[in-house]
Design brief:
alpha+beta, 3-stranded antiparallel beta sheet, two-stranded antiparallel sheet, 10 helices, disordered C terminus
């Protein structure tokens, strides 16, 4: 499936998630993503180390915003929204994934499917279930970082990478060209998909050993998850927050995976 995704989307990347900073401790950064088991939270550090141990190539792009950085209010909005999505199933409508695939080079194919009456091609977003890049786009929209020009379910993993066929990169180039005095006046209103003053820094590959050193390992074993946070209106530790969504994790994951496999078999 990994190689098929990369081939069909002409990309080096096949999956994407978002790292959320709930505390100042690096080992308590939380990763939210949507995979076959649905939307879930986990410690970013452990997830990254496990993936790298399995030979997965990983990269990241940091979201920055102006001289003051990304405001706490924006971070809180995205974290609060992320909490509401936990344990929702992986995308239940395969048509929405197909919509992102068909629309990766423009609107022609989806417009044709829309004219033929395909419900999933009619536009709009369904927040009841998410595929990985749709979830990331949704959270960025809630934070008012990503514009409303494209539906969240139009984004593929590659669109958050720094490659020429990424929607975000193409929009940046088109906006820059439109701002040029020699540009066609009719094109002057084009704007990037990432709203100012925000920007995604160039992707950086995570190399072995960069995420963990001996001091971090010791810190992780002695107090990871002890920081207090506000979660859905309650004060609790990060560890308790993860446990609250992990007690029935196996049951939820099994149900979501079965639903995902049923949809995939029908496709």
């Amino acid at each position: 499936m990994t190689y098929l995704t990369k081939c069909c989307t002409r990309s080096y990347w096949d999956h994407v998630g978002m790292v959320l900073k709930f505390s100042d401790r690096p080992d308590e950064r939380i990763l939210i993503e949507s995979a076959g088991c649905g939307v879930f939270l986990c410690y970013a550090k452990q997830r990254i180390e496990k993936a790298m141990a399995e030979g997965t190539v990983l990269g990241y792009r940091q979201l920055v915003g102006g001289s003051g950085g990304v405001s706490q209010a924006v971070k809180e909005r995205m974290k609060d929204e992320a909490q509401l999505q936990v344990e929702k199933p992986y995308e239940q409508c395969f048509g929405e994934i197909f919509k992102a695939f068909l629309g990766q080079d423009g609107d022609t194919a989806n417009s044709l499917m829309k004219s033929m009456g395909a419900e999933w091609a009619q536009g709009g977003e369904n927040p009841d279930s998410f595929f990985c890049s749709e979830l990331v786009a949704h959270l960025l929209k809630v934070g008012n970082v990503l514009s409303e020009e494209k539906d969240a379910n139009m984004f593929l993993p590659k669109d958050f990478a720094t490659q020429d066929n990424s929607w975000i990169i193409r929009a940046e180039k088109e906006a820059a060209a439109a701002a040029d005095k020699s540009a066609d006046p009719n094109e002057a209103m084009k704007k990037p998909l990432i709203r100012k003053p925000y920007q995604l820094k160039h992707e950086t590959k995570i190399v072995e050993g960069s995420a963990t050193d001996d001091s971090e390992k010791k810190k992780t074993h002695t107090g990871q998850g002890a920081s207090m946070i506000e979660f859905n209106g309650k004060s609790l530790t990060i560890a308790s927050m993860l446990d609250a969504h992990g007690g029935d994790r196996k049951k939820v994951a099994k149900a979501n995976m079965e639903a995902f496999e049923t949809i995939s078999n029908k496709a």
